[in-house]
Write a structure and sequence with these properties.
The chain has 111 residues and is mainly beta. It contains no helices and eight strands.
Length: 111
């Protein structure tokens, strides 16, 4: 099966009022086939750059999604990234749907 794949998404957020919990585990990637991959706070030696504190202004960072099992194989396409509330709700706070799904082999890679 080879080395595990990790998908890193750069995120830019602006919180206009109140605070927002945007820790990595509140993010999900949806594939074209409907699978979801939940963000992870750390994977191996790759730190998350979003942190765990509530955000109250501008923030930029990375959210990482580990490709465990068959979730990031070459036949998978990424369709959407969404931020969910920490209470387990199925309704995202924000959602970014890609104009066209992007196949995993077409994503930039680091060897």
């Amino acid at each position: 099966m080879g080395e595990p794949r990790i998908l890193l998404f750069p995120i830019v957020l602006d919180v206009d009022s109140g605070t927002l919990n945007a820790t990595s585990t509140n993010w999900k990637v949806r594939t074209l086939s409907g699978q979801t991959i939940t963000g992870d706070n750390s994977w191996g030696n790759i730190p998350t750059a979003m942190g765990n504190n509530a955000l109250d202004g501008h923030a930029e960072g990375l959210v990482l999604f580990p490709g465990i099992g068959d979730k990031l194989t070459d036949d998978v396409s990424i369709a959407e990234v969404a931020l969910y509330p920490p209470n387990g709700s199925n309704t995202p706070l924000a959602r970014w749907t890609l104009p066209e799904p992007v196949a995993v082999p077409d994503l930039p890679r680091s060897e």
